[in-house]
Structures are given as C-alpha cells and as structure tokens.
Write a structure and sequence with these properties.
Shape: globular
Helix content: under 10%
Number of strands: 24
Oligomer: single chain
Number of helices: 2
Radius of gyration: 21 Å
Strand order of the largest sheet: 1-2-3-4
Distance between the termini: 27 Å
Largest sheet: 4 strands, antiparallel
C-alpha cells in the first residue's frame, strides 16, 4: 500500500491489479488490471510512490517479476516497463539526497542503482543502470536509506546479513577485495548467538528453568535461520538526527542497531514466538491516533500488530492509549 496524502489517494495491489482509492470522493479505480492473456506473468509484488518535482508528476513504481513498471497516477496510464534484474524484484527504495536514483534488489542478491530522468514534456522516463552492488549470497529482500545520511544504503538478505553501503563509492582503507561501495556488514546469526549466551548466563545465575533454555536453543536451530525480512529507521529524538536501524528477522526478533557503529542497541522477541517479522511502520505526524515519533508498529506472520516504544536518552516512554488499538485484543505494547 502507498499513500499520496495531499491528493487523498490510497494505492494498493493484489496479485494482478493495482487499485486507486480516493478518500475524498469515496471512489476507486484500476490503475492496472491483468488480462486473461497476461495474468500468468503479471503478478504485482510491490508498489513505491515517487513525486517528480521537476516534472510536477506523481508516479508509481510497481515490481512485476524481473521488471519495474512505471505508472502516471494522475493520468492513470503506464509509462514504461523496464528490465534490469536477473530475478524477482523484492524492494524499491528512493533517496531524497539523490532523487534521480532508484535502488532496487532481487532474488539473486544483487542491488541495482538506476538513474531515473523525467522532464516536464517527456511522455516516458529514461532509465539507465548506474551501478550494481554485489555481496549477498542469497535473496536480497530489504533496502533502506539512512535518513540522517542518505548516501548510506542498508540491505538485508536471506543470507542472514545486513550490509551498509556508501553510494558515493568512496574507497575504504584497510578493506581489500571488497565490492565498490561496501562499508560494513552484520552477521545476524552471530549477533543472536552472543545475545543468547549472555541471556543464558543471566538465567543460570538466577536459576531459570530448563524450558527457557530450550526455547533459546530453538531460536538458533537450523529450523529458524535469521533471514532478514525488513529494515526501517526510527528517530529517537525529534530535536536531533539520532536514530536506530530496526531489523526484522525470520524468528520474530526485532533488533535495533546503531547505524554508525553497527553495534546492537536493543532487541525484542515479538509474539507469537518464531513467526517472521516482516514489516515496520513509524507512527509519526501523519497518523492521527499516535502522534509520536518514538512509536513503531511491527507486524508479520504472527497475524498481530505490536507497538514498540523506542526510548532514547533523556526521554520518557511515550504514552499509548489502549483505546486506540482498533479493539484488537491481540495488539501488544512493547518497550525496547
């Protein structure tokens, strides 16, 4: 789902259609619908809204298998279909620092930086490949720019790593034979093992039951590899650029990292246990019910929503109104 707030539009996709809802007129229309001839190959996997200031147009990027389709939202028409990928496209990200660059990744693990140009009088945009980033050994599923430094791009993969990239491609000293743009990498499995070893030590001192240890062992078993499903940034201080990188993984853990040092700040196991955490949503000023940048909604395969409080230095935990939980008894409030 993508929202164009100033035009009162909500854009959503199912397998073979893209629907535009107008909140003001209470109407809906199809931006795209597969035909009988194209249905087998036209599954829409994700959407990304883009406002092109120079051309004064609102566009929608829609991933379809190995292709990126571009639609003009205002005129409800397709502008082009482009192929840059070996495999299924999983994520598209845009940077405010470089508004003419699209970052996208696919099942091969590769990340493509694509130069995007559209002038006021152009009917179709011009797309050219700027750079490929290759380091992941499995599906690359998540991308996120650092809002405090949008030359930093973070990628998460089913190889259980998170990689930091510098899109300026400045050469780093002391790191030989690394791909261009590579800065640093987190091995999520190693982070979890360190956490569990520390937790076991505390539980042994406190005389914890064996059942807790069994549950911890299950977290790092081969049945629950820590695939990285989603990345997001959350602001800890509205008066500064202090933020954390949130990482949602296969076994339901939410990990919070310092994006500069890649040190783990905190973690939280979401419930139900061992269900993939696949989505974060910042509860910011655009949301009427939770007007607070320290609250993040998290959801995934557990079929529930949990609200995570991010507590920064010198800040108290934000207040959550239980009546605003949409009357869902499964919703939970969590503090990191």
């Amino acid at each position: 789902v993508e929202i164009v707030a100033d035009k009162n539009l909500i854009l959503s996709s199912s397998d073979q259609e893209i629907i535009v809802y107008n909140e003001q007129t209470k109407t809906k229309s199809n931006l795209y619908a597969a035909t009988a001839a194209t249905a087998a190959n036209d599954e829409i996997s994700l959407l990304k809204h883009c406002r092109v200031a120079a051309a004064q147009r609102d566009l929608l990027f829609a991933a379809n298998d190995k292709f990126i389709n571009i639609y003009d939202i205002d005129y409800a028409k397709q502008l082009g279909k482009y192929k840059f990928f070996k495999d299924t496209v999983n994520c598209i990200e845009l940077s405010s620092r470089e508004p003419n660059v699209i970052a996208a990744c696919d099942d091969s693990g590769d990340i493509k930086l694509i130069d995007f140009r559209l002038q006021p009088q152009q009917q179709s945009p011009a797309l050219t490949l700027k750079r490929s980033l290759s380091r992941h050994q499995n599906i690359c599923y998540a991308l996120k720019y650092n809002p405090a430094n949008e030359y930093e791009l973070f990628s998460g993969s089913f190889d259980c790593t998170v990689v930091k990239w510098d899109t300026r491609f400045i050469k780093t000293t002391g790191k030989k034979q690394q791909p261009p743009g590579f800065v640093d990498q987190i091995e999520v499995s190693g982070v979890i093992k360190q956490l569990l070893e520390k937790k076991r030590g505390k539980e042994e001192q406190a005389g914890a039951s064996q059942s807790n240890s069994d549950e911890l062992d299950y977290l790092v078993s081969s049945m629950t590899p820590p695939f990285v499903h989603t990345l997001s940034f959350a602001n800890l201080d509205s008066e500064t650029t202090s933020n954390v990188l949130l990482c949602g993984i296969e076994n339901g853990l939410c990990l919070a990292f310092d994006p500069a040092s890649f040190q783990l700040c905190a973690c939280r196991q979401l419930q139900p246990f061992n269900c993939a955490l696949t989505q974060f949503e910042n509860i910011d000023d655009h949301h009427a019910n939770y007007n607070n940048k320290h609250v993040v909604a998290a959801s995934g395969n557990g079929k529930r929503i949990e609200f995570i409080y991010l507590v920064g230095a010198g800040h108290q935990k934000p207040r959550a109104d239980a009546e605003n939980n949409h009357n869902k008894k499964s919703d939970e409030d969590t503090t990191i």
